[in-house]
């Protein structure tokens, strides 16, 4: 029987600027995106192995009732200063040079996962949002109900999304404007006062039964004349951190995922442990380190307080100079981070 040849293409948004010299676009193999040159298909026998094995920290996790503190209120929405506000998980409100962004909105319970902690204000109170930054389409990052609520309260909002995310967005609301980008591309919808780049991450995509890796994933860099901010999305540890720093310079603020890293045999290729996140931050020549992707949903085996505890230990050892752990809803002013 003749083996079917792999069909390889490199794709990007041909209308957008690509900042990596000579980059042909994201590699696809038979229509499925790769991590750089590597085609990563998560082995779901590993998921079965995880489900059937005993968590060595099960008892510790059962007794650990940690949740991030929530600072309730919505004053940050009316404050004109540059800032960022964690909304839980990987969702941030960001204001830079008068432009407002919302990252990976997951503001409710999501399918099969209850939210363990609230939001600082009702999701429908999140108004005057200019852009959605969507790193990838896993349901804890691109949530249908959250997007419908945000668009309903912000008819002016536009989505900055990965390649081939458009069909998902149209199915959620056919009127939501969006622009797709590949890695190393600069979106052109954003006013000149903020530059927004879609950059690599080491991850994967699956939202349904037949769409494995058919939508791209990535990270974001936001640049103004005074600040460079990195939002890592979901990622495993890989060489892209050094490359991002080489292309776009030291990162003044790094929003880094630090949860859902155990068991490592299942999580290591797609999530960062706290130690790996700090290593990546140092490769980015980071200034302030702000953790995310912990404490909001129960996704993995580590106890909920472990990521913060490990980060504090790493900072005390001198390996992490700029740790800042804000409460959900706490406004972090960029002028205070200089």
From TrEMBL:
<dbReference type="InterPro" id="IPR001279">
    <property type="entry name" value="Metallo-B-lactamas"/>
</dbReference>
<dbReference type="InterPro" id="IPR036866">
    <property type="entry name" value="RibonucZ/Hydroxyglut_hydro"/>
</dbReference>
<dbReference type="Pfam" id="PF12706">
    <property type="entry name" value="Lactamase_B_2"/>
</dbReference>
<feature type="domain" description="Metallo-beta-lactamase">
    <location>
        <begin position="101"/>
        <end position="294"/>
    </location>
</feature>
<protein>
    <recommendedName>
        <fullName>Metallo-beta-lactamase domain-containing protein</fullName>
    </recommendedName>
</protein>
<dbReference type="GO" id="GO:0005737">
    <property type="term" value="C:cytoplasm"/>
</dbReference>
């Amino acid at each position: 029987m003749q083996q079917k040849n792999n069909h390889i293409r490199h794709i990007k948004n041909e209308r957008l600027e690509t900042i990596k010299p000579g980059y042909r676009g994201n590699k696809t193999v038979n229509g499925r995106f790769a991590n750089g040159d590597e085609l990563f298909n998560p082995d779901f026998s590993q998921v079965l192995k995880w489900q059937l094995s005993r968590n060595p920290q099960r008892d510790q996790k059962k007794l650990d009732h940690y949740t991030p503190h929530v600072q309730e209120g919505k004053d940050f929405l009316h404050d004109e200063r540059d800032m960022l506000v964690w909304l839980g998980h990987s969702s941030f409100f960001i204001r830079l040079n008068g432009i407002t962004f919302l990252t990976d909105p997951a503001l409710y319970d999501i399918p099969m996962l209850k939210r363990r902690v609230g939001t600082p204000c009702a999701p429908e109170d999140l108004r005057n949002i200019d852009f959605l930054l969507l790193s990838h389409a896993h349901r804890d990052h691109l949530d249908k109900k959250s997007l419908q609520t945000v668009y309903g309260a912000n008819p002016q909002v536009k989505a900055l999304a990965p390649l081939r995310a458009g069909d998902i967005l149209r199915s959620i609301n056919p009127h939501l404007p969006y622009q797709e980008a590949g890695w190393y591309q600069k979106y052109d919808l954003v006013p000149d006062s903020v530059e927004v780049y879609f950059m690599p991450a080491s991850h994967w995509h699956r939202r349904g039964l037949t769409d494995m890796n058919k939508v791209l994933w990535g990270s974001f860099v936001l640049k103004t004349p005074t600040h460079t901010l990195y939002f890592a999305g979901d990622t495993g540890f890989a060489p892209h951190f050094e490359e991002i720093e080489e292309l776009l310079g030291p990162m003044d603020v790094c929003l880094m995922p630090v949860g859902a890293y155990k068991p490592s045999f299942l999580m290591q290729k797609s999530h960062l442990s706290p130690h790996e996140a700090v290593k990546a931050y140092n490769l980015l020549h980071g200034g302030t380190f702000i953790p995310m992707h912990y404490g909001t949903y129960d996704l993995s085996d580590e106890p909920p307080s472990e990521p913060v505890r490990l980060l504090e230990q790493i900072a005390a050892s001198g390996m992490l100079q700029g740790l800042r752990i804000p409460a959900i809803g706490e406004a972090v002013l960029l002028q205070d981070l200089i």
